[in-house]
Design a protein that fits this description.
This protein has 1 helix and 8 strands, in the order αββββββββ. The chain is globular and about 40 Å long. It is mainly beta.
Amino acid sequence: MKKSVFITLIAFLSFTSSYTQITKKDFIGHWTSDGTSTECVIWIDKNDNFQYVSWDRNGGQGLEILSVKYEYNRLIVRTRFKENNWVVTMSFALIDEYNMTAKIIGDANAIINYKKLK
């Protein structure tokens, strides 16, 4: 009995020590999308506000960033495509510290997965 309790305790402690809490700082980095030519860089400025820049490696449409905010463990970015005036809201959620997903809602709708490069 004592042996099984001891093994259970060791297994629990091993699991909790290997688990890392994802924080808003895990959004920081250079990200590339899985399956599209979109890349982005996310950082936090000296005023503790998120900043976001995105580009298309294939020379796609220019984007105007309308707003960037962090709420409920998500990074919410509103953009406008300059060429066609479409407005979309992207809700970024971290899967783990190296992967995130973006749900895009508005004049275009999609889900894009991202991997952290740096």
